Amino acid sequence: MFNKGQREEAIGNLKRVQATYEVQKQDFIKDTKRLLDKRRKLQTMINEAWDFINTMSNKPAVLNTELKVIKIEAKKFCGLLKTLELEMKISKASQISGGLPAMDIVVGRGGASIGSTAELAIATTFGTISSGTTLSSVGSTHAELPWPRSGTQDTGREGNTTTGPPLLGLARPTGCGAILNAGLLRYRNNKKVAEQATTEAARICRHVSIVEATRKAIQEIIELSTRTTDALLGMLLKCRKFPADYILLTTEQKQLVEALVNNTKAGAELLNRVVEDKDFSELFF
Predict the structure, then answer these.
(1) Tell me, what DSSP letter sits at residue 145?
(2) 149 has pLDDT over 50
(3) Within 10 Å of residue 88's Cβ, how many Cβ atoms?
(4) DSSP per residue, 248-271
(5) Helix %, strand %, coil % of the chain (to 5)
(6) Minimal CA–CA distance to 262: which of 117, 34, 53?
(7) Whole-structure pTM value
(8) 269: which of 148, 177, 226, 275 lies 20 to 30 Å off by Cα?
């Protein structure tokens, strides 16, 4: 048929782009879960450092002030995790009881969840549990999580559909799924199908670029978290050999304790660093 080659080439390219997109989605989830794991390890090290410094006697007033700041930042992250975990439990109970859970937005009605760990990881990565609402400011345990949504994709045959929870606002049918969903492959107008496939491939390429850039930002925080955790461990091991009375410390020992305090504070602030990407936030909806 006329333009058949053009149609097949466009659809083939669309499938390749879609495959890349799917890989990026899975890698994105892996990155967020890795970040959550690194943050939990950093949180543990921050708590240990705080306990050590707090028990030291005769500390200067400035160190006590820094300890308060560290405690506040650490509590933010701890509260974030507790809020999300509680929300997930409430949603699960609501599903079991037949109610309408807020997490329908996450798991997709009738669809399987991407996993509670992934949901928690995504939440802590972006620091929001509803559009425009920061986790640190949320008081309700019923805030909605905005990421994956349910979607129905036509398989190309009428009456045969599958539901699933595609990631984020990327939940809309994409790639050849969208083309099939539009029924364009039943058209004889090969040129129109090719044009639509090309347009869809370009849209997905933009999504891929956005996710790639977001993953880079996540990986930077992962690297910082890892380095900070290692640095705190090294300093803490040295400081634990010092006298428990600040007055008895040598000048060099005092400098190391102060460095430990500064790094612990930086680590506590790092716990709450979120990925801010306006382009990526557009994919939520």
Answers:
(1) P
(2) no
(3) 20
(4) GS-HHHHHHHHHHHHHHHHHHHHH
(5) 70, 5, 25
(6) 53
(7) 0.72
(8) 148
